[in-house]
Design goal:
This protein is of the alpha+beta class. The chain is built from six helices and five strands; from the N terminus they run E-E-E-E-E-H-H-H-H-H-H. The longest helix has 17 residues.
């Protein structure tokens, strides 16, 4: 008897080594949060399916045989492939860090739509931006803010004046603008701000970082 089916759009966060003719992925769905998905290896794919890859935005038809603990891909259709992320090591590193963060912290139901929107915007920026470090910094701040943590009132307000001004200017710049090499924040040092933000999140929130 066929198991339950699920039709959803999702973003591919994690990809595990193949085993027993299947590739295993962790994906994030706006409607259903984190899902463990198995796809038969390409040589046995149905014609209607495309092999998934990291950071893909895809439409999936899934079927489960264990009440939704894991899902098998019946059909997959590519919406967007952010292939530019893999062309630069730093872009791949920071995009993978963000994807792992979301996989470890799927959040409550009401945060799914903001998280999915953040992932789509960030993956697009990672694929094109000359400053993936800034993209990640802004994404981490936005993730914590959307999860309800007072990062503006506590973390940002507690920075020394010069660092606070730099952070405010950076955070006010849309992610899409960071695609431009000549952005007003193109020379902004991000390592110190990122370290301070990560230290705050580890100490004052329940967000699990790497």
């Amino acid at each position: 008897m066929p198991g339950p089916t699920l039709q959803t759009d999702a973003l591919v966060l994690l990809k595990q080594p193949p085993a027993d003719a299947f590739q295993t992925y962790t994906v994030f769905s706006t409607g259903h949060g984190g899902l463990l998905v198995l796809q038969r290896l390409p040589k046995k794919n149905a014609p209607a399916s495309v092999a998934l890859d990291l950071f893909d935005d895809v439409a999936l038809l899934l079927e489960s045989s264990n009440q939704g603990r894991t899902w098998f891909v019946r059909e997959s259709r590519l919406i967007t492939r952010h292939s530019g992320i893999g062309r630069r090591y730093e872009s791949l590193r920071f995009a993978s860090t963000l994807a792992t963060l979301v996989a470890r912290n799927p959040g409550p139901d009401e945060s799914r739509a903001p998280v999915a929107a953040l992932l789509r915007t960030a993956f697009t920026a990672f694929a094109d931006s000359a400053r993936p470090d800034l993209v990640y910094f802004k994404s981490l701040y936005r993730f914590a803010r959307d999860e309800g943590y007072p990062v503006k009132q506590e973390w940002l307000a507690g920075l020394p004046a010069a660092q606070r001004t730099l952070a405010e200017n950076l955070l006010a710049t849309p992610l899409a603008t960071l695609v431009e090499t000549q952005s007003a924040v193109a020379d902004a040092p991000s390592a110190l701000l990122l370290r301070r933000l990560e230290d705050y999140l580890r100490t004052h929130t329940e967000i699990l970082l790497e």
